[in-house]
Structures
1.
Amino acid sequence: MKLYALNGTCSLAPHILLQLSGQPFEIQFLDRSKGEHKAPEYLVINPRGKVPALQDGGAVILENVAIQYYLATRFASLELAPTELQERSRWLGYLSWFSSSVHPSFRRFRRPELHSPVESQWPAISETGKTEFLSALGEVDARLSGRSWLLGDSFSTADAYAHVFNLWARQMGFAIDHLSDLRRHGRAMMEMPAVQAAFRCEDLPLAVFD
Ligand SMILES: N[C@@H](CCC(=O)N[C@@H](CS)C(=O)NCC(=O)O)C(=O)O
């Protein structure tokens, strides 16, 4: 299996899952500064010029949600996702919310210029994105209240996905110290050797959740 990734981006979520699998895998980090994710060789893999992309034999799986679904199913014995219908639907609900709302809000914050050609609008777009992103983190914190993981007692791929947003918020220096359940969740994630391995491999700060 081969994962295409950009350091410290949303491809960290499937990277954590591959580390957790204990199975051999390859990871190719694309160099954003050289535009490798938009180069013709990569556009053959993902014509959208985005990461993550997962190659398994002849198959290429695109989109974080689909890749997490694939890995959870491929490594079913690791129980990275619930199998009971209602719990499985709740799990998919988290992935779908993260992918369709939470991630795009952070993108608006970071890249407002992609959302309007009118430069004077960029600060407002960025601010709105940040507000929505922080509101989502507040909801994650509230849903974690009294629980180890997003779905309760069992870890799922949704926790790896949430950890990426938690990391981004901390790297941006957002004021989220009051979100104590999110902090606890971040620390629990960092105690997992697979998460530490992924952070080391991507040269990410391990102490950011201390
Ligand atoms: N909907 C896609 C979004 C992927 C995405 O936006 N990836 C970012 C990294 S977090 C990326 O590849 N950015 C490079 C670019 O847009 O130029 C998914 O969930 O997989």
2.
Amino acid sequence: MRVGYGLHSRLDVADLDGDWLPLFTVWLDEAGRRGVREPNAMVLGTAGADGRPSTRTVLCKGADARGLTFFTTTSSRKGAQLAASGHASVTFPWLVVERQVHIEGRCDPLDRADSLAYWRTRPRGSQVAAWASEQSQPAESVEELESLFAVAEERLAGVDEIPMPDRWGGYLLTPERVEFWQGGRDRFHDRVECLRGDGGWTVRRLQP
Ligand SMILES: Cc1cc2nc3c(=O)[nH]c(=O)nc-3n(C[C@H](O)[C@H](O)[C@H](O)COP(=O)(O)O)c2cc1C
């Protein structure tokens, strides 16, 4: 397979104006409008104490000057690795628009109040699933899985506002490095890197 790139003219470093967030917001919006189905889906990379990396996709539920938020079961495999290292990386693979963004930095649990605020917006079925599943633990069979959901559903049937499980919550990824990438002709791609320093962001072009 060999796909040629070249949808975009070169990024101007000056367009970033010393901050990653405005361009990220524009690209996220454009990815959605130009056919990426879940443009807020990001591949989350973590590594535990042994330094071995692992990845999986999660949904970005917020992006502002503080960073990116996502939600998960904190006792999961990724949660254990985040607790061990305190760092993460994410990639937004917007392939149909020939773009990707990588963000790396510290990754810390959100305050319980912030996690709860998002928990309350989740559909009831998702809340039941969070109670039913000890994410990343083995399951004996499909029947066991169905039964875990059914038991949780029955237990919560009379509960108006389902409480947030202790093992569930959000994380804030605080960017220290952000890279914007666009496909270029002849694989001579466009890359711009933003690095956080004491005085703010430094923006520079990278070789493809
Ligand atoms: C498009 C997409 C979005 C997902 N969003 C989330 C999410 O927001 N939170 C989450 O915990 N898992 C999400 N998942 C499932 C994760 O990829 C993963 O299977 C799960 O979190 C367990 O990962 P772990 O065992 O490495 O902790 C999503 C999967 C896909 C394909």
3.
Amino acid sequence: MIDYFNISKQDKNIKKKILKDISKVISNNNFILGKPVNDFEKKFSNFCNVKYAVSCANGTDALFLALKSLNLPKNSEVILPAMTWISTILSVINNNLKPVLVDIEKGTPLISIKNIKKKINSHTKVILPVHLYGSVVDVRGIKKIIKNKNIFIIDDAAQAHGARNLDNKKVGSLSDISCFSFYPGKNLGCYGDGGIITTNNKTICNKIRKLRNLGSEKKHVHDEIGINSRLDTIQATILLNKINKLNFFNSKRYKIAKYYNNNINNIKITKIQYSKKSIYHQYVIMLKNRNLLIRKFKKNKIPFGIHYPKPLHKLECFKKLFKGKKFPNSEELANSCISLPIDPNLNKNKIYKIVKILNSF
Ligand SMILES: Cc1ncc(COP(=O)(O)O)c(C=O)c1O
């Protein structure tokens, strides 16, 4: 059987240790903001080469908290890609800010930087790029176009744990604030929901630390209007174990992606362009007759994903908001994308079988 992604198999060797550590949390009665939460925040900030990391309940909240910490005037504009997971835009709307969509660069999963430039005006307060599929946005390029303007960059790094930019700098250290998700299927995931925010800005870090804990750092002192969005101690314990295997698994994904890159040669398939040091959260190809391949995959029991079938402006809840707007590259990717299995434990035979099917339909 070919797995799309098998967490239980990936964690087989560390399961015993994880269960032992969870048992310790239970014995210590230390479920909320216990020591492992602090330990994990330190470990994650070291991993990203960034000064501060504040954990929270999930990646959606990480984005919400990051934007909230900036205290922006109502209806300030936030620029984000039209092709991303819904959480990116929800963080904008739920902060009473105005989302401004920008198309992705053709043939890539990433926001077009030249189109960002066209959308910047006096109301623009934040650029929110997404390192989609683990491919890294040229944040330095965005910094160049906003130079001397009072605009923040918050990057959505939910799919990019351990990825690096062309200067070899880790995602998590590239922008003013970075937001990660630890949803189970992410390159680093826990056994439930989890998220984290990284920054080099101490003021922002302290503010988010309060906001995620009902506006409080000291018991019964609430000097911000916050939310309840804490990473469970048990999840932090799991992440402390799993982060040790992240680089190893990322390098395995990289090898699988390289094999796909070098061996898929069906002219019906368009390979999308990834950044050099992508961590391949998803390996996505494009093809016009997607249903034909889906039928073949189903027949041969090859699992697949679609990330995502609709860009943001086509989602039911946003149809009115973005009526008449067109983002052709995002629409093309949504209409033609298929994600191939990229479980780090896929062996050669299985990858060979997948490629054979791809090249022969
Ligand atoms: C690009 C992107 N942003 C945000 C999120 C939200 O993360 P979560 O599911 O942890 O809320 C996800 C993951 O689901 C994601 O893929």
